[in-house]
Amino acid sequence: MFQSRGAGFRRLAEAHAGSVAGDTVVAIALAGTLFFSVPSSDARSNVALYLVITLAPFAVIGPFLGRFFERFPAAYRGGLVVSAALRALVAVVMAIWIDSLFLFPLAFLMLVLGRFHGIAKSSVLPVVLDGPSELIAGNANLARAGVVASAAAAVVGGLAQWLVGSWLTLLVAAFVYLWSAAAARNLPALEHEGAIDPKLAKAAPPREVRLARFATAAVRFLNGFLLLLVAFAFKDTDAAAAEFSTLLGAGGLGYFAAAFVTPVLDKYMSEEPMVVAGLAVEAGAAFIAAQAFGLPAASALAFAAGFAWGTAKFGFDGLLQASMPTQARGRAFTNSETFFQMAWVLGALIPVIPVLPINLGLSLAGVAALLIQVIYVSAVLVPVAHEHRLGTSEDSPPRRDVMDLL
User: Do 272 and 323 meet the contact criterion of CB atoms below 8 Å apart?
Assistant: First the structure.
């Protein structure tokens, strides 16, 4: 699938696949420790503590990463190598202290290093492609590689968890991260031409990127809310781990489907309608699941949520990569990924409080998705209406992207 894109893209795909696969195995180990092995009330407190730990320092870490990439704009390849190698080390330490309270700060460190990888990967991608027209397809291809590797890693990690326990699962994750680091080490050197321009490095994203970031964060917020809402609904009924695995698999399959559908959509529309489509899919699935909640409906909802996130994220990444100068991508992706992570955590924290019936929660999620669509589309179309009243100058860029929404 990657032969036509060159050695640089293949190495990046291998590094990304290893990173995502390692994260999947770590998630299996943590789920076995923090969620499945304890009563529902303890699971809620464990998840709440984990979410708070990931949220509180992230607002500080995000700007730090932005300044780091701004100061060292050619460090993206090194960022991929270091983030994978350090996660391998952290996984080994977690295996040793699996029953200790140190597990929570170590899990946070794992999350931060994962964000570091994601920012570096998104910043490297435009460099290893032939042009901006390949950004959507490139993001989608990386996602396919990640989903395939994640599925394979889930089988191995699940067997390790079942046969031995979380400590062996974490050691498996460490080996996978080392594979990711080795692949990233073989990436070609990525240097910027000429001196670093401080103005370019600190360039603010244009308005259309900021609006798309808001809508994409809304999809992420709803994903966090729906994931924990459905997970605790099944946990409270003493559902088996196989049912949770079905939901996770459906979510991954939806994301995988988006990786195939989004490049096709890119031929007929631009990025902003993709974000709107993600919100529409999520709204429809939430309303349907609220009418007859059960494993089939929950699996369909998980599929739709994965598809919505993939469609919105691929569209947003392509829009940002095409709109921002190379030297400013690190800061822009750092701020965006921090925003998305905080949105996911805030959404996931709501169902931790056991006062929201599942059907009401699903209906509210559908209403929220529809409302965000209206706000986003209205905000995007305001400048278009203004341009039509005043007239567009000959030097202005075409507005095909927003006009596609009409």
Answer: no
